[in-house]
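User: Some background: our group keeps a shared notebook of sequences we're curious about, and every so often someone picks one and asks for a predicted structure to add to the entry. Today it's my turn. The entry only has the sequence so far, pasted here. Could you supply the structure so I can complete it?
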Amino acid sequence: VFDLVADVDRYHEFVPMCTDSRVFRSTANTEQAVSEEPALASPAMIERQSFQAELAVGYPPFRERYMSNVVLERPWRIVATAVPDGGIFTHMRTVWEFAEAMSNSSTGLPTNPFVRKCMVSTRVSFSIEYEFASALHAQAASLVFDKMAQSNLAAYLARCQQLYGK
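Assistant: Of course. Here's the predicted structure to add to the notebook entry:
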């Protein structure tokens, strides 16, 4: 699931209202760091990659492009922060967090890892903070935000099914 979210170059293929997506200037390094993942009590190797991405989003008559600085902390976190350059946002920050979760294969509820019929699944947390530069964009988004959030979630789930069959 981490790789699906990290593949910003392909967002235009499945994210609603994303008409173009490109990655620029990628850097990567691996480092020893103390993980904030509660399941790990000791330091872990974290692969940290950063890049700039440009997304074109919109629905006629609104079409906008914006740049984000994206930091991947494989395999736990992806943070994207819009570049404040006079674009659509004065502020925008998204955070995806991923954690393994043991679940009962028949109910999907968390369970003891020693019980039969358990499988490892991924628990995904997503948060977004944003402020539009334009009152017109803010008003338009407020009218359709819940519907947009639901369609984006459905798009990621469908893409996960398509790529991983789960």
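Suggested note for the entry: The beta strands are 18-33, 44-59, 62-74, 77-82, 89-104, 118-132. Helices lie at 2-6, 11-14, 135-164.
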